[in-house]
Design brief:
alpha/beta, 7 strands, 193 residues
């Protein structure tokens, strides 16, 4: 699969050719999000992202719709899947995890204590979207069969409505009107003369 790693502005940071693994260090994810850990946080300007944390939304978008062709449909060949990984930092957000750890008292009669640990970090939320598929003769045949069957059903229903409902509502005989229109202008003139 060929892919691209882009930042929030859409600039391509790295292209990944087919067959190559797309390993990226954390520094690249942060650069794609538009910040470094030492930068001032927009949630608290007096602190850095290292102190406050950050939230990144990573979108994995994939598709193979562009590469599906008639030839791939006829031969059953698989089409190339392409993907794009884009990173966006959620503005004015921080990530903090609070954990309370009970501490055992040193002696049985001593008061108990607890230790509160506050940890800040970079939270990455992955969102996957896209569409991938391949051509199938069975699927095409089934869809064609359903489409033609639906067309035949609708035609039959409309014919039945014109045959029985129209005469009941208007008093005109549908068959007589159709025969008169189908007979052509020369026969209509001869008939009325």
């Amino acid at each position: 699969m060929a892919g691209a790693f882009v930042d929030a502005a859409g600039a391509v940071l790295r292209r990944v050719p087919p067959g190559q693994e797309d390993e990226m260090p954390v520094a690249e994810w942060l650069r794609a999000g538009g910040f470094q850990l030492g930068d001032a946080s927009d949630a608290d300007p007096a602190a850095t992202f290292r102190d406050e944390g950050a939230v990144l939304q990573v979108a994995l978008e994939y598709s193979n719709a562009e590469s599906i062709s008639v030839w791939s449909w006829l031969t059953g060949a698989r089409s190339d899947v392409r993907y794009t990984i884009s990173v966006q930092r959620i503005a004015k957000s921080e990530y903090k995890h609070v954990r309370v750890v009970p501490v055992m008292p040193p002696s049985p009669g001593a008061p108990s204590r607890r230790l509160v640990q506050k940890q800040h970090g970079v939270y990455m939320r992955f969102v996957q979207r896209g569409r991938a598929g391949r051509c199938s003769v069975m699927s095409f045949g089934t869809q064609l069969l359903y489409g033609l069957g639906s067309l035949a059903l609708v035609t039959t229903v409309i014919d039945l409505l014109w045959q029985y409902l129209l005469p009941a509502l208007t008093g005109e005989d549908y068959n007589a009107v159709v025969i008169e229109l189908a007979s052509g202008p020369s026969l209509r003139k001869a008939k009325h003369a």
